[in-house]
Amino acid sequence: MTERHGTGRFYLALAAITLLATALRLLWLDQATFAFDQAQIALRALTMARLGRLAAVGTEASVGIPHLPGTIWCYAVLYRLTTDPLLITGAVALINGGSVAGLGLVGRRAFGPAGGLIAAALYGLSPWAILFSRVIWGPDLVPALAVLWAYAAFRAQTGERPWPWVALCLMAAGLATQVHYVAVALLPATLYALIAGRWWARGRWPGLALGAGAVLLSVVPFVGAVWPEREAMLATMRTAGPGWRLSTVAAEGVLQMASGLEWPVIAVGQPAAALGGAWAAQRATAWVLLGAFVGGMLLLLWRALRRASGGRGDAGHGDAGRPFAAPFVLLWVLATPLLYSVHSTPVHHHYLLAALPGLHLATASLAPALSKRRGGRVLLALLVALALAQGGYWVAGLARQRPAAAAEIYSMGFQRQVLAALPDEGPVVLAVDCDAHEVCDEAAVWEARLWGRAHRIVDGRHVLLIPAEAEEADAALLLSASSGDLYAGWGHGAEPVAEVAPYRIARLPAGWRTSLAGWNAVEPRTLETGARLEAWRTEEAGGRLRLWLLWGITAEALPGQIQQFTHAYDGEARVAGEDFPVSARAWRVGDTLVTWADLAVPEGHGALSFRVGQYDLATMERAAILEQPEDPDRAIVLGP
């Protein structure tokens, strides 16, 4: 009866810790980041979930090669349910909140009920763990998968029917590595579990075969996609970063993440000492937790050495999983800093996330010994109190950043404000300083956020694209400050609708083409790029002449980056010129393209003529004029 009562209290306490940890991960989720990395994952996941195209590779790793597609596969499941990144971020937070309960169960098997609760409290309330648990990102899935892997490993050692747990352990480790290469650090502990548990023996080998087979089968699409580029990828890896070197950066990062040191620098933007007030105690609490972690690691090392020498180690506590725990947790924790002790690129904290749950499990290894002594129980209570304090500091840091996050263009709360200000219907034209969502931050973010709605993205420094649909319905212009004069002029005379700084939203009335005035009509000239010149005009002020061109899009654009050249001539002398991209990837048949070139013409110039056209930036070959196929210059002449 007493054992059942104790078990009930354990699960009640674990549920309370898990709820608190989950609440901290969901708190003010609108401050969570949705920037370039998140957008790249989202676009690939949306393509897989909504268009049915299997992702064979993931996003690019820091060493210049692609990740395996595990991250895309995981998020595709969520994007199949919704396209709202806030809801998907909430799902990530819930998954990581659930992993707190999972680590508590691992800790219970490894170090008893007290150990399970200590591990759950330290991990669940750790600012580092919370920070990396609430963003659409591959690394944010790694700790939860690591917990699943560890739980399966323990169940495989102690369960009555171990083979399903063997399979789950291997599949969790394989999926974690598919999600991010940092999970390779789980391999040493996995090999130890395989050997210690004799997974090749009767009752376990089916799980070994099933798990290993599933992992191997899952990498087939990736291998098929990258095999033709294998030599180039290896060369890229060899030359990545400033050069290979030996350092202790990873070890320092592990100590910080185990204790709570230095997280304010990333989450709040300042070290705790610079924040003043109650923040002065934050480092003190972290140093105490660091001491407990070091003590736990030393205890695990002692137990592992005793076990290796034939002693009882940590056996004798009434659970078959505990002799296995010390070597397993040591390998789990130490593999990551050892893996990154030699590196060519900077070692960021998210590279250490495979070890994060294990760090708090190591501290929890103190629980079996301390829980037997009154003074020890006081120390365990102190650890829980310090964990609560760290969670409180997280809330304080988040509150401190809330005003800044409200105006941060890469926070989801701000992006939702912009989307709410857009008209409910009609196409959207986003004007930024780069239209390639594969490489440009703003273009990537809004390509993902506007998924499912008719939209175009253009380089607004020289281009305004009017979708063909705008002939029937108003078009909305979403203008970034990076689009320059287009932003300053509210879309060059479009109707202002709203301003969510630093974005402006303007309305382009339906039938815009028919209301043109002041343009010089020309005999249409069509380029092989699919653009047909229909009108032009000039305006001059302050020594600058702006040449406006009006193009109609008659065919799908050629592949590659298309540039416009604009040259001004005084007689036969070229006096000014400007080239710029024309966002050809956004063109659709029936669209209208407005471009403008700012030409620094000399004072006292005579009557100017202009020669304009387009060319492929990669080959520098000018596009032919379909009405003048023999023209060697391939330039449309305007003016006298």
What is the topological layout?
Layout: H1 2-26, H2 36-51, H3 70-81, H4 85-124, H5 127-131, H6 142-158, H7 163-179, H8 187-196, H9 205-218, H10 220-226, H11 230-239, E1 245-246, H12 249-259, H13 263-267, H14 272-275, H15 280-308, H16 322-339, E2 342-343, H17 356-364, H18 367-370, H19 374-405, H20 412-421, E3 428-432, H21 441-449, E4 455-459, E5 463-466, E6 475-480, H22 485-488, H23 490-493, E7 495-500, E8 503-508, E9 520-526, E10 531-541, E11 544-553, E12 562-570, E13 573-581, E14 592-599, E15 608-616, E16 636-638
Parallel strand pairs: 3-4, 3-6
Antiparallel strand pairs: 1-2, 5-14, 6-8, 7-8, 9-10, 10-11, 11-14, 12-13, 12-15, 15-16
List keywords for this structure.
640 residues; alpha+beta; five-stranded mixed beta sheet; 23 helices; 16 strands; 49% helix; elongated
Question: What report would you give on this structure?
Answer:
With about 650 residues, the chain is an alpha+beta fold. Helix content is about 50%, strand content about 15%. It is built from 23 helices and 16 strands. The strands form four sheets. It has a five-stranded mixed sheet. A hairpin with a 2-residue loop joins strand 12 (about 560-570) and strand 13 (about 575-580). Helix 1 packs across helix 4 (about 85-125), helix 4 (about 85-125) runs antiparallel to helix 19 and helix 7 (about 165-180) packs parallel to helix 9 (about 205-220). The longest helix is centred in the first third of the chain and has 40 residues, at about 85-125. It is elongated, with a radius of gyration of 30 Å.
